């Protein structure tokens, strides 16, 4: 491995790893260089395993041997080893996981490619919280959803926190992003997907009822709206059915979006 | 209302609200005074509505009228109004929600009381993250679980973050804590509960299969283990069945504990 020891947090070679909690800086830096950040041993290994091409890896001194079995995969890139204190100054917090990987993004596939052969997909309208996006990917991948489609303003699945919370599911579950919010759902309908809008509002039917009688050739798209406000009126109108997770009457008016998503994915795979 | 304007973050009357992110300080302070903290308008209202007795309320100047309709409920306690900057110095972060309530804890009910009439309960072994405890309470309450039982070392549902993430579900869903980890489950079994241990380990059966044939008089207790490690060998051995949420084979080895809990509660209410 091309191990390079660096003792200065201001060293330009470490620029990919600068101030990981500064959301604005990271957004522009990652867009400009077409990179994303993988954090923690398991997630770095999964990014490599999924075929993402590394730009570099950063290890703290205590964890310098963490990836020594990956010398082959990492032969072409610098492996920076820095003291713990330097890592903390560089990234802006205690890097107790001890490893970060900077990876090249790849172009998103087009919608037809992502949907080819997919029977059960999740469509995220404007989930703005990276933690929620990551959690939904993890559940969707784990439960057997085939693909995820993002509205134009949904948060980035390859943002560091989303990647970490997803435990790398963002690498394996195919996804893409709509360029057109207003008309974007029509492509799904044209491909035969039945659009199920998840909403706790009155007039929705229990998801299991909406799926009763579904056959093995049916295609379903589960639409999930933003935290708090839920789906837009436009997307609710475009849906073929409004569905809900049945709630008990106990002063709790709704589920967290990640809990609702997990249950809805489970029910979709079970009976859809 | 007994409105008291205070401009000094060091004023002793504000001691209940000191350094809300200092976990060690808060644990001892809240235990010593038998208090808990409710954060945000909705959660403060729900604590009052659930019958918890307030010690005081703190409002920032911009939000001073937020609870003015509650003059009756708050007649007996001081309502502190402080400038935004004082609130930030006091609690240790930007109090953008603008309202905090300090409430008296009440003694936990005993296990028999909590389980009387309950058919579906969730038992948390050692969930250590307050966010996870709060999320599980919110899902359990929303989906219709009757009660929650905590192992001795499970995180406190009345800790501020747990309260907030639960959206107040910790006030309405009956719960108590076992004093005996080793033998604690025997009480549940003696009361006729069938103990279902949720675990992704080999040998577990899909939860829906384990519940097939359940009758309306059956009692079920769903055992959830700690983040990462899962249930202890002791509790797995004590269970009547080991159950799992069926997973797709997509490099995702497990669900987040809150997602797994949501799905398991949903399935338990649907078919248990």
Automatic annotation (TrEMBL), chains A, B:
UniProt keyword annotation of Ion transport present: no
Pfam families linked: SpoU_methylase (PF00588)
Keyword terms, alphabetized: Methyltransferase, Transferase
Domain of life, per lineage: Bacteria
Domain RNA 2-O ribose methyltransferase substrate binding, chain residue ranges per copy: 37-109
GO biological process: methylation; RNA processing
One GO CC annotation: cytoplasm
Molecular function per GO: RNA binding; RNA methyltransferase activity
Similarity comment: family membership: Belongs to the class IV-like SAM-binding methyltransferase superfamily. RNA methyltransferase TrmH family.
Protein name: rRNA methyltransferase
